[in-house]
# Entry
Amino acid sequence: MSFQFSVAARNAWLDAIETAIGASAILKIRTGAVPATCATADAGTVLATMALPSDWMAAASAGAKALAGTWQDTAADATGTAAHFRIYASDGVTCHMQGTVSQSAADGGTGDLKLAQATADLVAGVQISISTFTLTANGA
# Structure
């Protein structure tokens, strides 16, 4: 039998993730495949770097936790196709979370992190924003 947790336990687990990563987390969007683990060296070209808001996730509710505030880079760092992201502690070096990137959900995107635009192709110097990022606990 697989473990089952109450909504309160799932919410506490999700809120603990944001606490562990800390305020002023850094999001980097990159080209290429997601590395095997967060402990694996960075891969791909950095296309965008975002300093996330100090409270970058909303409080968990019903076993899910969504982005809070504005997640954007006013000028992308490089041109390329966004494929994965990494969220780092405020030092920009310690990776705590990673996953896939896609265009917006409205345009068929299925990535863990969805851009606000209709394509995953980013252009250096052009503003990009994140429309959807939600953590969902098992059993929610």
Notes: The longest strand covers residues 128-136. The chain has one domain: 7-136. The mean pLDDT is 95.
